[in-house]
Amino acid sequence: MVPAYEYDVQLPANMEPGKAYPAIFTLHGKGSDERDMLGLTAPLADHFILIHIRGNLSMGAGYQFYELKSLGNPDREVFDQAVQQLEAFIRYATEKYPVDPGKRYLLGFSQGAILSMTLALTMGDQLKGIVALNGYVPEFVKTEYALQSVSGVSVFISHGEFDPVFPVRIGHETAAYFEQQTPHLTFRTYPVGHGVSADNQRDFVIWLERDAGVNMNKGVN
């Protein structure tokens, strides 16, 4: 299979032969690229396979996974295709690398967060968890997609209190939606705009380590 996406993969430095590792698939925001996600996941490099996916549609100097008709209104055909292609890519990478299929995570920002939450709803327990930073779930996904149960999926949602792109009320509404779907929800807001603060990064790093059961000798709060 030829994957639909360019990507960067980082394997733990001291991998043990024959061992499967938890994996984090990252999805960047609109107009960015996979390199924007490297710093966010760097503290996890010793214990996770990190797979940074680049959107396959050009946008200025960067990329996107789907196009918008207007803010908050994805082009449905392109969006549907992105969801299908990302599901196929996750299967491809799981076969190509020593990924533990029971510990697959998605981590997305903005457009990537939107896709991460959508994929959780379409893949269900094929994913162990997601980290969604400043995003939302499109209404047509909730009402028209064939949704899988996420009752066993761990979900970390965060939102900037001063986000000028997606107001913080959207973060609260998204968290309220997932609260009805899974008992494994963590929702936090941070005093930033449409971005990720150092506190936000620290919190989801700790959350991922704890959820995957790695590096448990490290202090948590």
UniProtKB/TrEMBL annotation:
Protein's recorded name: Esterase
Keywords on record: Hydrolase
Top-rank taxon, per record: Bacteria
Source species of the chain: Paenibacillus dendrobii
Gene3D superfamilies: alpha/beta hydrolase (3.40.50.1820)
Family from the record: Belongs to the AB hydrolase superfamily. AB hydrolase 2 family.
InterPro entries found in the cross-reference section: AB_hydrolase_fold, LYPA1-2/EST-like, PLipase/COase/thioEstase
Any one GO MF annotation of this record: hydrolase activity
Domain Phospholipase/carboxylesterase/thioesterase: start-end pairs: 47-197
Pfam families xrefs: Abhydrolase_2
